[in-house]
């Protein structure tokens, strides 16, 4: 394929990315579906020649590209959340209870269910089965924009707004579980290479707890310092919020990730914690919206490249090792394992419980819309570069297929489902308003 044709295709893809949001907002069709389809069609064109995508050979490129894409998405997700998390206030922790249930119940159940399905009935080796569960468990902060909060609204106070609990739950879950999948990825690596000194205790104490705490502390500390610099620095020339310089968001992203990785904490968690902490200071300032817009534009460009490449790879080699086992894992995860795990995370609780705020239908939506995407590609590339897995090529095909199923199913259903929920919320608000008027 000539370089001129590559430029032309990229230009057309950028134009497509610019107009898709306006074209598709009324239709049950997401931008990721269209972008992957375009990449797939390019792979089928004669101009593609005999290009063969080998994910094993391209693993370092895949790892770094998806790593940057996820990092940018995590910063955007953290800045988009209006609900504060005040560590010293028990009520603030309780207002995030939907998030904690998804992380503490749904995510382990998804990892365990997927791993057991692959290892037991399908005969996949234990290290690969655990790795498959770990890389497919996190919901994706990149491809789930249709079911997440849209950005900082700047009108919120400290009170909890339960009107959009579904979007909040899915957004905050995506921000945190990309980092919390790492301990289980390391568990799979240890199974493949041999446990380090300390065995399970070392894994629990360091991989599961120590690195998580370090990542959160580093990110929160940097977010606090940068927020004070941007909003409350003694010198006006240092108060970046006053001049509207939004590049602070990218600086915060790089500083948080780099500092956390230097001290061996989880950088993904650090970036999200940094963004949430930044957002918690001067929450009604327009500067948050400026930072979010810059991050969102960069995320759009990176997502464009990833999705076009993913679609292209579907017809040029990524699915070469897909078999019925991979198809079963992908379909079962999207349609059974994650929805069931998400629903069980809220078993026994009702919308009348203020700290949960989800009724039965909303729990079904939260459980179902666990979008799989770019993060899964990163984790698989990272693990495959750290240890040797005999089923690596099969896992690449299985993960690629699962992402395709998720993008298609969730992309088609997201718009009508969220409209339906919005309609229910509007009707409920109207009923409450009428009841208040009648009492008045």
Task: For this entry, give a set of tags.
440 residues, mainly alpha, transmembrane helix, Cation:proton antiporter, transmembrane, antiport
Structure description:
This protein is 71% helix and 0% strand. The protein is an all-alpha fold. The protein has a single domain, classed as Na+/H+ antiporter like fold, CATH 1.20.1530.20. α3 (59-80) runs antiparallel to α7, α3 (59-80) runs antiparallel to α13 and α6 packs antiparallel against α16.
Distance between the termini: 72 Å
Would you state the CATH class? Mainly Alpha
What is the makeup of the main sheet?
Answer: none
Please work out how many helical segments DSSP would assign.
Answer: 17
Secondary structural class: mainly alpha
Provide mean pLDDT, rounded. Answer: 86
Low-confidence stretches: 157-162, 352-356
CATH architecture: Up-down Bundle
Give me the CATH fold name. Answer: Na+/H+ antiporter like fold
Give the oligomeric state: single chain
Apparent shape: globular
- Counted up, domains total 1
Number of strands: 0
Secondary-structure element sequence?
A: HHHHHHHHHHHHHHHHH
In which range does the helix fraction lie?
A: over 70%
Beta-strand content estimate: under 5%
Q: Rg, please?
A: 22 Å
What's a quick, concise take on this entry?
Helix content is about 70%, strand content about 0%. It is an all-alpha fold and about 450 residues long. It has one domain (about 5-425): Up-down Bundle (Na+/H+ antiporter like fold).
């Amino acid at each position: 394929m000539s370089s001129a044709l590559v430029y032309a295709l990229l230009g057309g893809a950028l134009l497509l990315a610019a107009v898709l949001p306006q074209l598709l907002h009324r239709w049950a069709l997401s931008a990721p579906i269209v972008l992957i389809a375009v990449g797939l069609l390019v792979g089928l064109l004669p101009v593609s020649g005999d290009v063969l995508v080998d994910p094993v050979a391209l693993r370092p490129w895949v790892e770094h590209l998806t790593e940057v894409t996820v990092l940018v998405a995590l910063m955007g997700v953290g800045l988009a959340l209006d609900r504060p998390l005040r560590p010293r206030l028990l009520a603030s922790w309780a207002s995030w209870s939907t998030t904690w249930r998804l992380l503490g119940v749904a995510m382990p159940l998804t990892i365990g269910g997927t791993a057991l399905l692959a290892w037991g009935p399908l005969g996949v080796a234990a290290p690969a089965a655990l790795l498959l569960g770990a890389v497919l468990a996190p919901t994706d902060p990149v491809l789930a924009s249709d079911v997440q909060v849209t950005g900082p609204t700047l009108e919120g106070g400290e009170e909890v707004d339960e009107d959009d609990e579904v979007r909040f739950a899915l957004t905050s879950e995506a921000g945190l579980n990309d980092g919390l999948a790492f301990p289980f990825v390391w568990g799979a690596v240890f199974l493949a290479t041999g446990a380090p000194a300390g065995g399970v205790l070392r894994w629990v104490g360091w991989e599961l707890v120590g690195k998580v705490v370090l990542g959160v502390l580093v990110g929160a500390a940097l977010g606090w310092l940068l927020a004070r610099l941007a909003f409350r620095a003694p010198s006006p020339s240092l108060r970046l919020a006053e001049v509207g310089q939004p590049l602070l968001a990218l600086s915060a992203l790089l500083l948080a990730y780099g500092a956390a990785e230097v001290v061996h904490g989880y950088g993904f968690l650090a970036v999200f914690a940094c963004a949430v902490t930044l957002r918690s200071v001067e929450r009604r300032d327009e500067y948050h919206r400026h930072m979010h817009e810059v991050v969102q534009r960069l995320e759009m460009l990176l997502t464009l490249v990833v999705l076009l490449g993913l679609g292209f790879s579907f017809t040029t080699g990524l699915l070469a090792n897909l078999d019925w086992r991979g198809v079963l894992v992908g379909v079962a995860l999207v349609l059974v394992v994650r929805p069931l795990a998400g629903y069980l995370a809220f078993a026994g609780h009702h919308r009348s419980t203020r700290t949960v705020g989800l009724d039965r239908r909303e729990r079904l939506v939260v459980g179902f819309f666990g979008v799989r995407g770019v993060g899964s590609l990163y984790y698989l590339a990272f693990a495959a570069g750290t240890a040797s897995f005999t089923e690596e090529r099969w896992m690449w095909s299985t993960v690629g297929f699962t992402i395709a199923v998720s993008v298609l199913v969730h992309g088609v259903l997201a718009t009508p489902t969220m409209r339906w929920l919005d309609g229910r919320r509007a009707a409920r608000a109207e009923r409450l308003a009428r009841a208040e008027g009648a009492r008045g």
